[in-house]
Structures are given as structure tokens and as C-alpha cells.
Amino acid sequence: MISVVSLPTNLTVSTNIIATSVPKTRKQSRPLNSDLRSLTKSGKLDEALRLIESSRSESAAAEPDLESYSLLLHACISRKSLEHGRRLYLHLLLSKEKGNHDLLKNPILTSKFITLYSVCGLIDEARQVFQDGLKDENVPESVWVAMAIGFSRNGYSKEALFVYRGMLSRLVQPGNFAFSMALKACTDLLELSTGRAVHAQIIKCNEEADQVVNNALLRLYAECGCLDEVLRVFEEMPNRNIVSWNSLIAGYIRHEQVSESLGAFRRMQGEEIGFSWVTLTTVLPVCSLVTALNSGREIHAQIVKSTRKPDVPILNSLMDMYAKCGAIDYCRRVFEGMWSKDLTSWNTMLMGYAINGRIQDAVGIFNKMVDSGIRPDSVTFIALLSGCSHGGLTEEGQRLFNKMRKHYGVSPTVEHYACLVDMLGRAGSIKEALEVVKLMPMRPSGSIWGSLLNSCRLHGKVSLGQFIAERLFEIEPSNQGNYVMLSNIYANAGMWDNVKAVREMMERRGMKKEVGCSWIQIKNRIHTFVAGGGFEFRNSAEYKKVWNELKNAMEVFGYVPRTDVVLHDVNEEIKAMWVCAHSERLATVFALIHTSIGMPIRITKNLRVCVDCHAWIKIVSRVTGRVIVLRDTNRFHHFREGACSSPIEKLQFPWIAHIKLPNASIPHLYDLLHSLMLVLLVELGYQYYSKNHKSHWNSSTGILF
């Protein structure tokens, strides 16, 4: 037997000493079993084993009973005490050799020994015990299930299913334990067809599935993306617990049904089911996905009301939600109120500042983090470098990159080099960025070439963009974003034949340009808007009323649509119409209609916001007095009183002074001048209109007209 052969010599010797040091005739004040159970329950496993080993020299009648052995073995499992379990196994083996009853064949003890070895990671020894047990003709379900669970626990889900099939081949009637084990293995392997076969067996056996089996079915279908089956099993369950609701929410999330997942969480609270920390770590990222701040704050309230003290990972998730909803001040409050902070806490706060355009605060948190004795890691510097890139702090970013390895022992990875290349490219130092790519110690990834391609788009480098795009098409032939980026470069240069060629290439390869979508939460409901869509909404009287009021206000502030952002060879009138139907504009107007005056507006977009929509929303924030938070794929834009929080959008004169005009491309310079003129027009128009007209606010939308 493997478990006997692998016993250390010193353990065998000490066992013999203990066994011979106890008198053969021992008067007990209480029966052996009573003493043994008392020692086991109090956790005195060494004394319990000495008592058992001392009984081996006496008659068989002095042996402990099955219940005592089972209780002791259960204690070994709960403590993962392999040493005590092996001593017990050796005792039973020696007792068998003396002619006593062979308890090693007892299915209860066999199952427990299999479980002990498997929880201690000794799957081969567990398998040996199992194979010895198979020598009997009638092996009960408990032994099969113990072995299958042992395999599954150690990452051998295929072997677990093999054991389940072996049990069926022996004509052993599976019960709920076997069914739940098989379903878990199917879930781990994403074996949907096998899982459905197990489900059919449950129905065929007329076995009334208990809550554990139903939860296993829910998890299987949720992980495999079968939402219809999830809903059917869930609705048919006579009793549901937290695990059931967690599986339902996970099913909705897998199908990107954000409103439904948040609605399920609210239903769960309405039925007073409560929640687990797993529930919250599942739901909070959903709030982050569509900036559903209202739902996130409801969850925060549930945490505060809970009698349980939230652990650090939960508070980290809460911080992440607030940061990704653009509520960075709430994120900071959670951070400052934490009773304990780990590295993830600091990184989350730092990343929150960085993505919300507050890079100086991010650098400040980094300095506090270092002063507190927290050693930064790779994630820390990705957040810092990304923030410096989007914040225009090129010199600071380069300084941090150079200090990574020297001062903090963090070796730059591909992600760090991608941030550095993006930072240099955005600043117009494309030659320097190419030099970094040339000298970096690892093969450049698609993200690095993608950053260079984006820099070519920003600065009008057509020929270099063509070269980089060809490299990207080899590395990432299925990434439609690269084709769209090249198409944009051609369109900005007026090369419409090349634009057409790129689109035809995409069609041949079965790719379509991703449609712009925006999401907004109003009264716990997520509303989705698609660019060019929403015909019924755009034709409604309330939309036309608000749109016309905005249009009149825009004219006062000198707003003229930037039709060059429409990358199609069509006339100017059609371009202006298409710009007005961008998804973020539809979401903004919808929010103005359906929210109270002065309420902040939070929008999420799946693509980068265009220059014209950025300018349009700035004026909307001025004429309505609203704070508008827009999250696109690059960053957060916090619009307030006609200005954007993004450092690059502030257009401060010191920043302008650093631009090298001789090397600046025409499109980049044009964007700069257009934005600067827009800021001046907004301010002059507002002052002129305020002086010469009696302005007032619309009572329903809050628009100045």
C-alpha cells in the first residue's frame, strides 16, 4: 500500500515506542469509545491516537467502534492533518494483520480516507485507496462520489467524469451527491452536452433534485451561456438561496443583459434573501460597465447596513466601481475610510485618478504609497504611465519609466512599453517612439503597433501609417479596429479611394465597423442608444423641442458642426445630419428630458468620442448648467460649465507653448486652433448674450435660451 510504504521511518519507530510504553492491562474509568470521542472533539488528536494504538495489543473487543474511527478521521480531514490520518491508516492495517475486523473495507472509512488524501493534494494515494475498495462487488455511491470529488478538487475534472461513468457501468443508482459532483465537473470542463445528459438522468430517475443539484444545474447553464435554461431551472426551483441568485445574475452578465442582472439583484434584496460577498463582487463590475452609479450606491448602502464587516477585497471592488463610474470623490472617501489597505487598494485609487484625468493626484497617491512602505508593482506603473500618456505629461512619464527598474525593481513588460510608445506618439515624438520599439528587449505586441498607428492618425502620418498597418494586419488579422484606424487616416487625408479599398478588404474578411453605442442609467433602468438609430425617439415632440432649444443656444455660442469627423465621401448636409445622430448626443438629450434640472448626467460609450461631439457636449454643459460625465474607450471626460477635465482639453497656454509648430501636422494644428476658437466663442457668446438679452431657463430642461 502506497500510504504505508511512504511512512517515514521515525514515525514508525515512535509509534512502536508509544505502543509499548502503555501497560497491556489498563483499567479505564470510562469506556474506550467515550474517551476517544472526547479527545477528538477537543482537538487532542495525538492523545486520541495514542489511546487507539494502545488498544491494539488488547483483545478485539477493546477496539474502538466505527463511529469513533469515523469521528477521528473527520477531524483529520477538517484540519488537513495528513500525519494523524496516516497513523490511523497504519493502525487499521496492523489491526487487520492481527486478525481483527478489516475496517479498511468499510465504505464510510474508505470514503473518508479518499477525502483526506485528496484534500491534502495526494491524489495518487487517494486513487490507491479507491482501487482497493473496488475489489468488492458492491461499492456504494459514497465511495465513487468521494473519489470523483477528489479528482475535481485537484483539477482533474475529466477523471471525475470517468469515475461517474464507471459508477453507472456498475449499475450503481446515482443520487443527488453524484449528480451534483458530475454537474460540477461538466461546468469546469464546459461540457454542455454531458451536463444535459446528466440533467436528463436526473429527470429519468424521478429523483427530486435538491437545492445543491439545482444550483449545480444553474451554474452549468450560466457558465455555458444558456440563459433560457438558467431561467427555466431557476423558475422551477421550489427553494432558492444566495447561490441560486448568484448563478442567475452570472447568467445575465454572460449575456451582457446589464439591466436584467441589476434587476435580479434588486429582486433578491426584495425577497430578503440577503447577499454574499460573492454576490457583490459579481454585481459591482456590472455597475462599472455602464456607469450605473445609482445601482452602485444602492449596493454600497447594503454593505453599510450589513452587520458583517466588509473585507478589503469588497472595498476594493467598491472603489473600482466608483472610479469607473466617474465618481472619483466617492472612491477617495472609501479609500480613506478603509481600516486596512493592501496593494490593490492603492493601485485602484491610483488608477481611478489616472483614468479620470487627475494625473497629479495619481502621482501624489503614488508618493504616499511609497512613503507608507507599500512596494509598487507592475500594475502600479501601468496606471501611472497610462495616466501620463492621456494627461500629456510626457517628461514625467519618461522619468517614471526610467525609475521602474532602478528604484523599485519592476522590470518593464510589453504593457509598460506600450504606454511609453503611446505617450511619445501622442506628444508628436513619433521618431522617438519608433526608436523605443526598435530597442525594446521583447517582440513588439499588437498594442504597441496599434499605439503607433493611432499616433499616425493624430498627426497625419499617412505613409508611416500604411507601413504600420501592414505589420498589424500580419499580427492581428482579425482586429477590425486596425482597419478602421487606417481608414480614418486615409479619410482625414481625403484619400477616398483608399478608404473604399480598406472597407472592401474588411468585407472580404467578414468584418464590419463597430457601431457606436452609448448607455445611460435613469431610475434604475439602463437605456441604450445606437448611432443613427432611435428614429421613434428623434421624431417625438419632446425630443424635437429640446433639440431645437439646444440648437438655438448653440448658435449663440458660435457652434458649427465639424463635418470632417464623418469619414464618408458624402455632401456636407448629410455629414452634418450624421454627426447630430451620434449615440452620445441621443443619450444626452434623453437625459435632459428625463432627469431633474441640475442632475449630473453619466454616459458610457463603446468607442472614442469624436471631436465634434466633445465640443457639442462642452456647450451643452454650459447652457444647461449640468455636469456631464462621459466615459469612452480612452478616458473619462468630466464636462462642467463649458470645460472638460481632461488635461489635454484644458488648452492651457503653457501646454500650447511646448508644441513644436514646425513639426506639427496640419490636422493636429487644425484641431488645436478649432478647439481654442470654440472656447473663445463660448465665453464671448455667453457674455454678449447675457448683456443684450433677458435670458431665462426652460422649466423642463434647464436650457438657457
UniProtKB/TrEMBL annotation:
Residues 558-645 form the DYW domain. It comes from the Eukaryota. PANTHER family: PENTATRICOPEPTIDE REPEAT-CONTAINING PROTEIN. GO terms for biological process: RNA modification. InterPro entries: DYW_dom, E_motif, PPR_At4g14850-like_plant, PPR_rpt. Keywords: Repeat. The keyword Repeat applies. PPR repeats lie at residues 210-244, 342-376, 377-407. The keyword DNA-binding does not apply. Belongs to the PPR family. PCMP-H subfamily. Belongs to the PPR family. PCMP-E subfamily. This is DYW domain-containing protein. One of its GO terms (molecular function) is mRNA binding. PROSITE patterns: PPR (PS51375).
